[in-house]
Amino acid sequence: MPYPTPASLLQVDLHPGTPPILHTDTPDDASAWAAEHHHALRSLVTEHGAVLVRGLHLRDADHAGAVLHRLAPALMPDKEAFAPRQSYTPGVYSSSTWPPNQPMCMHHELSYTLQPPGLMLFACLTAPTTGGATAIADAPSVLEALPTELVHRFEQEGWLLTRTYNDEIGAPYAEAFGTDDRRAIEDYCRANAITFEWQPDGGLRTRQRRPAVTAHPVTGRRCWFNQIAFLNEWTVEPEIRDYLIDVYGAESLPFNTRFGGGDPIGPDVIQLLNDTYTAHTLREPWQAGDLMLVDNVRTAHSREAFQGPREVLVAMAEPLRPAECLPASEVSAG
């Protein structure tokens, strides 16, 4: 039986403006390489926040899926997804369906759920012609760069996600919850601190309050951890926002975010958040066969606009404990 590889034996390239890159050359058995090195890779992710592995020659969904399962045997199902995904193997999904010409701004995956993943895994099978990088940003650095008064308010109130599920924009509720059984959905919502309201037309509206700042489960560092900007109405293009308001109404948008107390978040705050992310962004264009591991608490990630085909598989692992994902006031009250 091979001994685990120490992280010190895996040398990563560190260059300004790019994520840490680990070069290897494993054309034959990437799955065995992943099994041998997964402890060392996980240590590198904790140290750096993310690692891009280049040289595994991932060929297809089955090949990449085998590698992902070796790196994180207990992959998570995708619950409460905001956009549809294709499932390849258990726990291995396509990237979220999102227009190629529209960037997906920085966020922490499923940070609005009660048990978000601590680890994200991305496998590139087809690289786009231009753009399309999965860029990253260091959450503690973003937190330190934000105005103290704004951070204090979000720490006190948390942030609120409102969703109005429909069959046209985003994932329908049956897909997001994995069932169309209303009782099962209601039970899930109650168990996961989500308030819900069925609409006269059969739709579903939900609200959930989550912390904007959390402590890293390993290092204890305070991290800006949320999807406040990503899922806010002011992040989308103005003409798209106007269209959505015309169709659904300002209070029934498919998704939107607010301060935890319910006050709207203005465009100036969203612009500030996105500008702060931009100032701390690292990027490296995908190459076919690449693998990237991202600490989902320490590191936010985005998807840049692109041209040409792009196929990047996604897996999630290491769910956080529920107490780490409730505002402090709710934890102390519980």
UniProtKB/TrEMBL annotation:
Keyword vocabulary terms for this entry: Antibiotic biosynthesis, Dioxygenase, Iron, Oxidoreductase
Residue ranges of domain TauD/TfdA-like in the record: 29-316
InterPro entries per the UniProt record, alphabetical: AlphaKG_dependent_hydroxylases, TauD-like_sf, TauD/TfdA-like
Keyword Iron: yes
Matching Pfam families: TauD
MF annotations from Gene Ontology: dioxygenase activity
Cofactors that this protein relies on: Fe(2+)
Protein name: TauD/TfdA family dioxygenase
Species the sequence originates in: Streptomyces dengpaensis
The keyword Iron appears for this protein: yes
